[in-house]
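pasting for the record
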Amino acid sequence: MKLLTWAAGAALVIASSWSVAQDLTEIDKPASELEEVLAQEIDLPPGDQSVRVVRVAMEPHTAAAWHSHPSPVYVYVIEGEVTLEVEGETKTVKAGEAVAEPLDARMRAINTTDQPARAVVFQISPKEKAFLEEEAQN
């Protein structure tokens, strides 16, 4: 009886594994397209580099503090839109768009809309570099 129970269990495991393997084969079909939204060549200093990925959520009618980035920063807006104010000029980045922020430039992000905005920020920098340098508040 124990042998029969063991054989039945093994058969069930093999059958479920075959079913899962069959399902995984169907997943190998392409499900989406790749679309490059930003490409930029960068020169990185020698030494170890670190990649930071930061999620940003901005409520309607809010702004980040004035700051600058000492290393390359790339912003991809997931939801809503964000206006970047960089040294007197503005650029609005909408959901599905990406932008490279300039190095060492005085800037801030603003959500001027009535809707929340969400973005993902990517930075490549030496490990010891700060993500951003906030401007002192007066």
